[in-house]
What we know:
Blueprint: H1 12-30, H2 33-40, H3 44-51, H4 54-76, H5 83-98, H6 109-117, H7 122-148, H8 158-177, H9 182-196
Helix pairs in contact: 1-2, 1-4, 1-6, 4-7, 5-8, 5-9, 6-7, 7-8, 8-9
Amino acid sequence: MRKRGRPIEYDAQTALAAARDVFWATGFSASSLDALSEATGMNRPSLAGAFGDKEALYIATLEQYRDQGAAAMKETLSGARPLARELALLYASAIDLYLASKDAARGCLMIGTASVEAVSRPAVRNVLSQGLAEFNAIIEERLRKAVRDGEIGKDTDPAALAQIASAVLHSLAVRARAGDPRKSLERLARTAVGLICP
């Protein structure tokens, strides 16, 4: 009789993605170890052996989400296209992600779940802070290039403008989770691009 546990062909990234979807749908506190075990196909001892306790597993899913998001953001904001076009693509991709669930819109994993846990869990707060700073830095770097290339005014403050651009992403995430329709989110994104790239 085959024992249920960590499969021989165990893949950490696949297991993290499965666990991430559980946390994303129900949040950290409401995600049971049984649900995480079922989603990953690993029994609880194997899950603990691979990732540690529930908080450690949650942090690993946040780090995976952060790293994948940063890579996608760098690709979108590569500077190969006009700034307005790249920002529009960034917001469009974010909206697609935030609304992707077949059930209720999940928004952003970090904004929707980590911001809740950050108050009482310093390790979660640290990952959230690092993630937001990294996303902000990627946008700021693209805005600095836009200033150098004359796409936006030389008197622009790229750091401050990057915070505004990031804040729009956060707002889209929250509004998606709150049930705002796609058209409303797209209107906000278009307005933001118009403000950043007058």
